[in-house]
């Protein structure tokens, strides 16, 4: 089934302890789209400026991503993010953010996108995420990401959004902030009480936790030692997870758990290259091979 | 097979955000012994003062722990530790440490202990750990724990010990300190290069990683929301792991992975009560029931 994603499309400048790379294809919707493209047809909604390099669009299209929902604002500039990773490759400093055209993003879905059954709202202003939902009234599964900024400044809008969602994906520090609870198991259940039928807490290099109607579980990250650039790992996780759900056109408990495992594995490939460079080169077979290894790792 | 453990036996005073409890049965060898007692015969080596409450020895004996190696120094005082957990229940402050008789601990193994095949050296001065090893020349499997203090101040002795060990268990920050590497996968392999045939990195609420001759894997912690007192979780983990290996009298790759899973589960029970209170009340059946749930959690 087609999967619609709405979120940021950006140009990233990334510095790690060993290397600096400029003008990488970045953004939450971009990492999500490429990750989901291994599983299903992806329809991207985003906005860029006239500085947007055409080869980035071509790269997305080469992965089968439908970019007809990518607005180009003539004379505008694309969202840019500049960041530096600390030696542990988990903590990072944002050196510069230029929202540019993304600051005025008013997503309008093409007609054929509006019939989508699977929708992912990548991190964005909650009120804008709500406006997207209202454009896909026939959706079967709507999942969103959020971030500390909206939890702190847009809480009313976020609460309203939570009431409309089937699932919420957020990271561990955000779950603690949203609930005021430092115990992740309690925090996950508390987020679920705010509305979403299921909640996924991303723990970075420590994997992810799932909170559903009848079960709570945790799966570890795939232990890659080749961490080149963690940017977009969380969006890749969500892309792998949602892509698999849309492929199966099912979100029962078993499918959700397998989907979470795919999300974890796709994220492990994402961090093995700068931006989307490594993702561009892998295939579904590479993912399936790692999945076999991951299942073996968890069997005893 | 009998399992010998040498380490600290202590009286703990513990403060959490909601409660303060004094005079708890504590110490690395104690948490280890009780945890291992669900699987095999445990022979404890430690030292206490004449203030040691007899009921603590009785509790250990009720779990089948052989306490004939527990020296009592007349007129001496038992090691005490006082600590406070921060609201996240992971970070803690040590408020007071009184080494007392443990500061002069010179472990002498009873004759029947010296024929042990399975030995665990709980956290202690590396030179003292070495002296224990020399008393069990016919051992089949020797595993040790260590800590930041010895890594920083007793590095030569520790390096010598690493060359004698079959396995080393340490936590994530200690692995980074020991190797100077912030990537845990690389750090684990680097520790292995220092001598031990296998290395286990404990990640607290995030589970544990294993580095063996032919494989690297990670297993998540069991997601308990009932974290009452994390003291001794790492020692309980080691106790469950070593106890299972001694029970099976085997440490091939499959047995090691199952043993690590038991360690994770026993640690999850340990944190559900102050000191060893909850451990005192559970049975092997409780562990097996949680193991079934854990295996289900990791299956998809």
TrEMBL record, chains A, B:
Residue ranges constituting the Carbohydrate kinase PfkB domain according to the UniProt record: 3-276
Keywords, sorted A to Z: Kinase, Transferase
GO molecular-function term, one example from the UniProt record: kinase activity
Top-level taxon of the source organism: Bacteria
EC number: 2.7.1.-
Pfam families in UniProt: PfkB
A GO cellular component annotation in the UniProt record: cytosol
InterPro entries registered for this protein in UniProt: Carboh/pur_kinase_PfkB_CS, PfkB_dom, Ribokinase-like
Presence of the UniProt keyword Repeat in the record: no
Protein name as it appears in the record: Putative sugar kinase YdjH
Gene: ydjH_2
């Amino acid at each position: 089934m087609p999967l619609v994603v709405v979120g940021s499309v950006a140009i990233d400048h990334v510095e790690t302890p060993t290397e600096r790379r400029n003008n990488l294809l970045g953004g939450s919707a971009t990492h999500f789209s490429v990750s989901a493209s291994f599983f299903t047809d992806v329809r991207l909604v985003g906005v860029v400026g006239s500085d947007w390099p055409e080869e980035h669009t071509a790269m997305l299209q080469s992965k089968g991503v439908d970019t007809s929902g990518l607005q180009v604002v003539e004379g505008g500039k694309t969202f840019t993010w500049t960041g530096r990773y600390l030696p542990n490759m988990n903590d990072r400093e944002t050196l510069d953010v230029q929202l540019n055209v993304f600051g005025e993003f008013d997503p309008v879905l093409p007609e054929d996108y509006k019939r989508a059954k699977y929708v992912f709202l990548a991190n964005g202003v909650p009120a804008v995420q709500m406006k997207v939902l209202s454009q896909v009234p026939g959706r079967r599964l709507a999942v969103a990401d959020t971030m500390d900024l909206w939890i702190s400044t847009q809480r009313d809008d976020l609460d309203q959004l939570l009431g409309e969602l089937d699932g919420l994906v957020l990271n561990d520090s955000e779950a603690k902030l949203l609930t005021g609870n430092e115990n992740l198991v309690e925090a996950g259940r508390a987020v679920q009480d705010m509305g979403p039928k299921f909640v996924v807490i991303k723990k970075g290099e420590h994997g992810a936790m799932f909170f559903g109607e009848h079960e709570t579980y945790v799966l570890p990250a795939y232990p890659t030692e080749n961490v080149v650039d963690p940017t977009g790992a969380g969006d890749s996780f969500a892309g792998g997870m949602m892509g698999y759900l849309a492929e199966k056109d099912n979100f029962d408990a078993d499918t959700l758990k397998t989907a979470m495992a795919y999300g974890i594995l796709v994220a492990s490939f994402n961090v093995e290259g700068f931006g989307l460079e490594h993702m561009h080169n892998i295939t579904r077979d590479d993912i399936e091979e790692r999945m076999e290894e991951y299942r073996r790792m968890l069997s005893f």
